[in-house]
Structure formats: C-alpha cells, structure tokens
Design brief:
about 350 residues
C-alpha cells in the first residue's frame, strides 16, 4: 500500500498553472460519462509534472491512481522511473521494475533506457546500470543512442574508465557517431577516475592524463567543437593531476576565448589556482590572479581560499601569507577572522602570531 505523500507547497509563480491543471483533472474525473480518466490520461499528467520538476505532485497523483484502482501499464511505469532521476531514487525505480514483473507488464526499450539513466545518477549504483545494460540486450532489445549515452553517464559519475572505453568502442562499431556530449562525458570520466584512483595508482593517473590530452584533437578530427563543459572537464583532469602548466595553457588559449562566450570563467580559474597551490607554486598562482583581473574575471571566495591554503603551506616563511592578505585588503575582501572560514582564520592567526613571536625573539 502506497501512503499518500505530503502535499507540496506551491510557489506563487506556478500556483495558478497548478491550480488550473488540478481543476481540469478534477473536472475530467467527476464527469466520467463525458470522458474516461484512464491510465493514458494519468500518464500524460504524470509525464508533464515530472518534466517540469513537480515531482511531489507527481507522487501524489500516483497515490490518486492507486486509490482509483488505475492499473499501470508499461508506459506509465517508464514515466514513473523518469520521475526518480531528479533525486537519484534508484531503489524506487528498481521497485517499479520489480512491480512490472509481478504484474506481468513487459518492459520496453524506453523502460530499460530510463532505468539505466536513474542508476547513472549515483556512483554506488554503477553495478545496477551495468546489469540492466546487459539485461536489455539479453531480453532482445537493440541498444540505441540513448542507451549508450546513459551508460556513458554512469561511467562518468563512477569514474569507470575501462568500461566507458568499452561502451564507446561498441557504440562506434554499431554505427553511432559521437557528439560533443559523448566527448565531454569521456573527459569527465577521466577526471573522476583520476581523483578517486590516480592518487594511489600513478600509472592509471598517467593514462587518464594522456587520454584526456587527446580529446580536443580527436574532436577536431570528427569535425566537432568543444563546448564550455567539455573544456572544463579536460581542464579538471590537468588541474587535479596536478599539471598546472598544461591547465593554464588550456585556460588561456585564445582560440577558445574567441569562440566561446563563457570561457574562461571563474570555475576554471579556481581549478588552476588550486593546482598551482597544490604544487606550492604560489608565485604562479598570484600571476594568474593578476591575469584574471586583467580579463575582468573577479576572484570569488573560493579563489581567496585556495590562495590562503597555498600560502599556509609555505612552512618556512610568512611572506606569501602576508602577500595574499595584502591582496585581500586591497580588494576589500574581509580578513579571515571576519568571515565564516573559522578553521582557516585560526590557521592564519597562528602563523602570523608565530612569525611575530619569532621576530620578537630575534
């Protein structure tokens, strides 16, 4: 038995349209002699609610279907699974698939693709994505472009490089051409895998770095131009490797600045700032800060946080820390003691006090 979910709070911007939809639905339901409200009608409304992010209303409508003994069909189950994507409700989607089996509803290709999409939203459910990817073919359904995109998404979220390359290879052998999104997911897979595995496996980290470094050339060979998301994913591989020099070259490449309106942005700059600070090249990080300002890219809280952490890593001298604090003062950025970063504020104060004590002793 499904319990009635709590009614969602309607925002003022969408309240009128939601009230209208509810009035239409109630009118249909109360005039069964004029119009039969069947599973098709319910499914159309469910689909609309989920597509517009009104998941709470969608689950409430499902409860209403249960109360009116509306039997779900394959299309309805597929729509319900789609409603599980937004909040990564993998277990709920798997439950719908189990319910389909119990009620004798045969899944369609759309059902499989949707379930794989749900499983692709979490790294801990990558195994489920693989299971249904394989079961789909075993049950006689040909994988299509949506299937391969969903599996690439699953690989990217989990950082599964080997499986991603198998999926891409199969996709190409099946005659599906890669697009910009496919290459972006490939780059994101290398970035996540390098972060999770590369720190322990240097050979794997080198492989991810090498393959990510060829993505833009391979895209050019396919006649594709990268978008901001693709460049950001490649940049992340370089920055987290860490290879700040390669990351900086990509960030400042005039080719992409001329072709893409939103490149470079503050997120990419912060990746490179963190990379320079990670290898203790604070002077290069400060040079990047000057370049950002000359290109009208204003540093944010994360920029200053990276610079402070980089300065604090310099154990033998307090000069870099003073340089960063002076920059912050010039820009009117609150000192750490006045902000919310209490741990960093304490570390800054301790370093400054230690330097002061040392000068007093000398």
């Amino acid at each position: 038995m499904i319990r009635r979910p709590p009614r969602s709070t309607l925002s003022s911007s969408s309240a009128a349209s939601d009230v209208y939809k509810r009035q239409v639905f109630n009118a249909l339901r109360s005039n069964r002699d004029l119009c039969t409200v069947d599973v098709v009608m319910y499914t159309v409304m469910l689909d609309g609610l989920f597509r517009h992010g009104r998941n709470d209303d969608g689950w409430e409508l499902l409860w209403d279907m249960q109360q009116n003994r509306i039997e779900l069909d394959t299309v309805a189950f597929s729509v319900l699974m789609r409603g599980c994507v937004k909040h990564s409700q993998v277990e709920k989607a798997l439950g719908f698939m189990e319910e389909m089996d119990q009620t004798g509803q045969a899944p369609s290709k759309v059902t499989y693709n949707t379930l794989i999409n749900v499983c692709a939203t979490r790294p801990d459910t990558f195994g489920h994505a693989v299971e249904w990817f394989n079961r789909m073919e075993a049950d006689g359904f040909m994988r299509d472009a949506h299937t391969y995109r969903a599996m690439q998404q699953a690989c990217a979220v989990a950082g599964e490089v080997e499986y991603m390359e198998r999926v891409v290879s199969e996709m190409e052998e099946a005659g599906f051409q890669r697009d910009t999104g496919s290459f972006e997911l490939e780059a994101r897979t290398y970035a996540i895998s390098n972060r999770e595995v590369g720190r322990y496996d240097h050979q794997h980290a080198g492989y991810c770095l090498e393959r990510a470094g060829t993505i833009l050339d391979r895209m050019e060979a396919e006649g594709l131009q990268p978008d901001v998301q693709t460049l950001s994913s490649v940049l992340r591989v370089f920055a987290e490797a860490p290879r700040p020099g390669r990351a900086l070259n990509l960030l400042q490449d005039p080719q992409w600045k001329d072709q893409l309106d939103q490149w470079p942005g503050i997120a990419g700059c912060n990746m490179v700032l963190n990379s320079f600070c990670k290898v203790k090249q604070l002077d290069r990080a400060l040079e990047l800060l000057d370049w950002m300002e000359s290109n009208a890219i204003q540093p944010d809280r994360n920029s200053w946080k990276a610079l402070l952490n980089g300065a604090l890593s310099k154990k033998k001298t307090v000069v870099p820390l003073v340089q960063v604090l002076q920059r912050m003062q010039q820009k009117g950025v609150p000192m750490p003691s006045q902000g919310k970063e209490h741990v960093e504020a304490a570390r800054v104060q301790q370093r400054l006090q230690a330097a002061l004590d040392q000068m007093t002793t000398e």
